[in-house]
Amino acid sequence: MDLVAQEHLRDAFVPLDDRLLEEFERYWVSVLPGRRTSDLALPYFHLKSDGFWSLVPRPGMEQVVAAVDQIRSLGPLRASVLGARLDPNLFHLLVQRDTRNALRQVLIETYFAPDLWPTLLDVAQIAVQSVAYETRLRGLVRQPFALQEAIATGLEYRVEARSTAFRRTVVTAYNATCAMCGVRLKTPEGRAAVAAAHIVPWSVSHNDDPRNGVALCGLHHWTFDQGLAAITIDLRVRVSTVIGDVEGTQPLRVLSGRGIHHPTEAKFQPAPDALAWHLEHVFRR
Ligand SMILES: [Zn+2]
Question: Which of 92, 111, 130 corresponds to the end of one domain?
Fold first, then answer.
């Protein structure tokens, strides 16, 4: 329903893609915060018994999909199905906001304890807001970069919607690859090793322009925020001399002078003004 509301799903075919995994994961951690692994494979497979959801096998896998009575993880599921198809009449109702929201309400009130109802409605609201904000961020890169321009103010967007949109825009721009070291890792649930780092922190700039962001793995995000490394205006890694020439610093020092892994499209490249600010105020010369 969220993917229909976001216009990510434009017909009744539901691909088993990263976007679906991401949405599922957000509901999962909201309802079961202590449980680390979500598994979309179970509902995705077993919904086929409910009469409105049919699995679309990969060519040659029709008999396998028809014969098995369970598929427990994403790897085997992806190997055997292309996706799933919703009943066309149901899809028609999901496209309309009123019926979609009515069904959402019924599902939530039927299957979840009352104390979870507000949480689940929140997740849905954030999902829709994040897409609206993402559209706005993607539009910004067509205009000249303005470091001091606050993009979102007041209560227009929820904090989670903003951070989700910024992360999705920046991480997608870099194809989930760390700009500094090139690592590209994802769990089967779709969690990426990289995050979207603000070059000029949000607390200073209130600027979520994708060009004020860079995709960095956990280690290099920390290194960047601590000022132990920076990205120069000509898009090379610069490593601070304060880390010294001692054992253990080598994995960072080898990156010095290397070109960064660029975003796939040049329009998402880090803004020189933002990089200059970081070199001036955060980087340890
Ligand atoms: Zn890295």
Answer: 111
| Inside any domain, residue 216 | yes
Co-location of 162 and 273 in the same domain: yes
What string of pLDDT tens digits covers the 285 residues of the chain? Answer: 999 988 889 899 999 988 898 889 889 888 887 776 778 899 999 999 999 999 999 999 999 888 888 888 888 899 999 999 999 999 999 999 999 999 999 999 999 999 999 999 999 988 889 988 998 999 999 999 988 776 665 457 888 899 999 999 999 999 999 999 999 998 876 788 999 999 999 888 889 999 999 999 999 999 999 999 999 999 999 999 999 888 899 999 999 999 999 999 999 999 999 999 999 999 998
Number of structural domains the chain divides into: 2
Say how many Å lie between the CA of residue 193 and the centre of ligand 1: 9
User: Do 61 and 173 fall within a single domain?
Assistant: no
Q: Are 161 and 56 within one domain? A: no
Between CA 13 and CA 133 the distance in angstroms is 25
Q: Which range marks the domain in which residue 26 is found? A: 2-111
The Cα–Cα gap between 66 and 86 comes to: 17
What 3-state DSSP class applies to 178?
Answer: coil
Cα-atom radius of gyration of the chain, to the nearest Å?
A: 22
On whether residue 131 sits in a domain, the answer given is no
- The DSSP element (H or E) to which 230 belongs, if any, is strand 229-231
Residue 139 lies in a domain: no
Whole-number Å distance, alpha carbon 180 to ligand 1 midpoint, is: 5
Residue 136 resides in a domain? no
Query: How remote is the CA of residue 283 from the centroid of ligand 1, in Å?
Result: 17
Residues 169 and 269 reside in one and the same domain: yes
Close Cβ partners of 85 (under 8 Å, ≥ 6 residues apart):
12, 13, 14, 53, 54, 56
C-alpha 27 – ligand 1 centre gap (Å): 28
What residues pack around ion ligand 1 (CB closer than 5 A)?
Answer: 178, 180-181, 217, 220
**Distance from the CA of 169 to the center of ligand 1, in angstroms?**
18
Q: If you measure from the C-alpha of residue 178 to the centroid of ligand 1, how many angstroms do you get, rounded to a whole number?
A: 5
